[in-house]
Amino acid sequence: MCHAQATRSVSERRACRVVGQCRATQQYVPTHTEGEDRRRTRIIALAHEYGRYGYRRITALLHQEGWRVNHKHVERLWRQEGLKVPQKQPKRARLWLADGSCIRRRAEYPNPVWSYDFVMDRTQDGRPLKLLTIVDEYTRGMCRDWGPTAPQVTGCPGGLG
Questions:
Q1: How many domains does the chain have?
Q2: Which of 18, 51, 78, 91 has its CB surrounded by the most CB atoms within 10 Å?
Q3: Binning pLDDT at 50, 70 and 90, where does residue 146 land?
Q4: Are residues 99 and 118 both part of a single domain?
Q5: CA 80, CA 44: separation in Å to the nearest integer?
Q6: Residue at 118 is within a domain
Q7: Shared domain check, 111 and 88
Q8: Do 78 and 119 sit in the same domain of this protein?
Q9: Please, which residues have CB within 8 angstroms of residue 110's CB and are 6 or more apart in sequence?
């Protein structure tokens, strides 16, 4: 919006009208409440300690500890930190541990965290097309994919190829 105002030399009112944005949205200045960092670290610690608790139970625990916090605020911090509640484990043959796995690993530099997805389709002549897409979470760079006839991965760093 500021760029449009500077280059076109128009008022904020006119620029907002052209874009279709409310002026209050343009003038909003986000505030950082005091103690938010302490709340954030406490929420992460509780989520790690109680792996199966969601943001509502964490809010209740914070209330029991004496924190004055709204459930909507806890939910917003929960989403910003990428926290999630892991799936419930089956009673028989537990395949994974309840070690606080709701803390998602974040990429801080290229190559430690990758996402992958298998995509399957058919070509126009009916041959199967199988694609393995691999994306680096930090750079959002994508490796080459599996082709319909060449079962090799090309262009991937590390030992993915």
A1: 2
A2: 78
A3: very low
A4: no
A5: 11
A6: yes
A7: no
A8: no
A9: 136, 138, 139, 141
Predicted confidence band of residue 152 (pLDDT cuts 50, 70, 90): low
Are residues 94 and 38 both part of a single domain?
A: yes
Nearest Cα neighbor of 13 from 45, 71, 160, 21 is: 21
Identify whether residues 41 and 89 lie together within a single domain.
Answer: yes
Angle between helices 55-64 and 71-80 (to 10 degrees): 120
Residue 58 near residue 74 (C-beta atoms within 8 A) = yes
Got the DSSP string for the chain?
Answer: -HHHHHHHT--HHHHHHHHT--HHHHH------TTHHHHHHHHHHHHHHSTT--HHHHHHHHHHTT----HHHHHHHHHHTT--PPPPPPSSS--S--S-TTS----SSSSS-EEEEEEEEE-TTS-EEEEEEEEETTT--B-----SS-----S-STT--
User: Residue 72: what pLDDT?
Assistant: 93
What are residue 121's DSSP bridge partners?
Answer: 129
Domain span at residue 59 reads: 34-104
For residue 16, tell me if it sits in a domain.
Answer: no
Give pLDDT tens digits for 56-72.
999 999 999 999 999 99
Can you give the pLDDT at residue 44?
Answer: 92
